[in-house]
Design brief:
The protein has 172 residues and is of the alpha/beta class. It has a single domain, classed as 3-Layer(aba) Sandwich (Rossmann fold). The chain is built from 5 helices and 9 strands; from the N terminus they run αβαββββαβαβαββ. The strands form 3 sheets. A 4-stranded mixed beta sheet has the order 6-7-9-8, with helices on one face. A 3-stranded mixed beta sheet has the order 3-5-4. Strand 6, helix 4 and strand 7 form a beta-alpha-beta unit.
Length: 172
């Protein structure tokens, strides 16, 4: 969250954060956050409605996942989710300057939906979860190929090759 708070402090931007899990909501409420940090208790998905979020394997972990994988518990909670396009329409936005996603395996469907809905985005910061047992590296390769075709170019890859930053390529 230091990245988001730095953007607010240095540039005065508004940050929209989304997470449907009760523990994150409780944590957010316990923080002293600037007014420009706006939290909604909803998950981002490739559909509008509700989804099962599988609990983390240990009680002290916080990350839930819409993806069934051996890394998560078989227990789940039902939470509200919405498409990026739906959330943007509700908020009156027509583009995203920076999209930062760490959504535990659901990023593949959300990115595919972003492209399908032709959402204009300047930068994407994403953690790919190809290490999950039900995902695999081919999904990441396919997502990166689709993003490249959509005009997003890789400008940073972390040493673990899971966290990437992509920027909108300038038209020639």
């Amino acid at each position: 969250m230091s990245f988001e708070l730095s953007l607010i402090q240095q540039y005065g931007v508004t940050i929209r954060a989304f997470d449907p899990t009760p523990r994150v909501k409780t944590w957010i409420q316990s923080q002293s956050l600037p007014a420009q940090f706006r939290f909604q208790q909803i998950g981002i998905a490739d559909f509008d409605g509700e989804a099962d979020f599988y609990l983390p394997p240990k009680r002290d972990f916080i990350s839930h996942s819409m993806i069934r994988a051996r890394q998560y518990s078989e227990d789940s909670i039902r939470v509200p989710v919405a498409k990026l396009a739906t959330v943007m329409r509700t908020l009156g936005h027509n583009r995203i300057d920076i999209l930062k996603m760490d959504i535990e395996g659901a990023e593949y469907a959300v990115l595919k939906d972003l492209i399908k809905d032709k959402i204009e985005v300047g930068q994407i910061l994403v953690e790919f979860h190809h290490r999950l047992s039900s995902v695999g590296i081919e999904k990441t390769r396919a997502a990166l190929s689709a993003l490249n075709d959509y005009g997003m170019k890789i400008c940073y890859v972390c040493p673990r090759m899971e966290i990437l930053t992509l920027i909108r390529a300038l038209a020639k």
